[in-house]
């Protein structure tokens, strides 16, 4: 590992461009904090997602695990057959390959930090449920 890849990286989500899947309904946006394409990091991709009031991140699955840490707002998370209410301070572990989705049930944006054990978000192959 070279010195540049060992240097501390500090990024603010609010300073980064919003991203979205235009083909996916629900209004979810995200800002990539760390991944191979945004920074020189490897083994970890993370960012902050925002779901507007009344919006959702539709049910989907991918071959890698994912973790959410809800920062603010209120919502409902489905992982497999279980559905749970979440709000700021709630963490959710999503096992690899398990269908999951998030719905904002509150009146303000639902924001959560997400983490994948991959070099880049481009490495995450999403399959959205019909």
Automatic annotation (TrEMBL):
SUPFAM superfamilies: RmlC-like cupins. Residues 48-116 form the Cupin type-2 domain. It comes from the Bacteria. Pfam families: Cupin_2. InterPro entries: Cupin_2, GPI/OXD, RmlC-like_jellyroll, RmlC_Cupin_sf. Transmembrane segments: none annotated. Keywords: Metal-binding. This is Cupin type-2 domain-containing protein.
């Amino acid at each position: 590992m070279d010195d540049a890849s060992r240097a501390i990286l500090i990024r603010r989500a609010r300073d980064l461009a919003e991203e979205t899947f235009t083909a996916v309904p629900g209004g979810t946006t995200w800002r990539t904090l760390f991944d191979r394409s945004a920074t020189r990091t490897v083994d970890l991709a993370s960012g902050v997602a925002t779901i507007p009031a009344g919006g959702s991140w539709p049910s989907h699955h991918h071959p890698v695990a994912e973790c959410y840490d809800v920062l603010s707002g209120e919502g409902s998370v489905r992982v497999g057959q279980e559905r749970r209410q979440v709000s700021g301070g709630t963490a959710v572990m999503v096992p690899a390959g398990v269908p999951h989705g998030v719905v904002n049930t509150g009146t303000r944006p639902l924001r959560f930090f997400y983490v994948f054990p991959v070099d880049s978000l481009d490495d995450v192959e999403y399959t959205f449920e019909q």
